Amino acid sequence: MSVTDRDIVSALQGGLPLVAEPYAAVAAALGLREDELLARLQAMQDSGVIRRIAAAPNHFKLGMTANGMTVWDVEDTRVALLGAQVGALPFVTHAYERPRALPDWPYNLFAMVHGHTRDEVEDKRRQIADLLGRASRGNDILYSTRILKKTGLRLRREAPACSD
Question: Which among 7, 16, 17, 90 is placed 20 to 30 Å from 153, CA to CA?
Fold first, then answer.
């Protein structure tokens, strides 16, 4: 990474500023033009240094205290297609495939849902079950009791910088 790219990551690792034009504000603070900042961010995404830039809301602070990771046992040959369908549901914040850990853990499709009550989350789980139909051989739900991680890419302070 170049010195400038490291500066960009350092400036963004705590989150975007809550202003009308956050990228313009970050660019100005770094002495860059906004279009240059955006081009560098795109290049870092294209190279895999940054996977994505996304909002990471604190659901507990938003009043959504019933947060459940639904887990599903679906055929391995269909998990990618079914996962895409589940992930497209408006109330699923993220869905992904994970390997099974047999014999104790038969689940290979995970989908996170949030709600104000457990009844609301259970209703959303039923909607996922309806979508999956007979393709689901079993499911469960794991409720969150606290937020474990809400951070993105972090740079080590002692990492050497290279030139632009």
Answer: 90
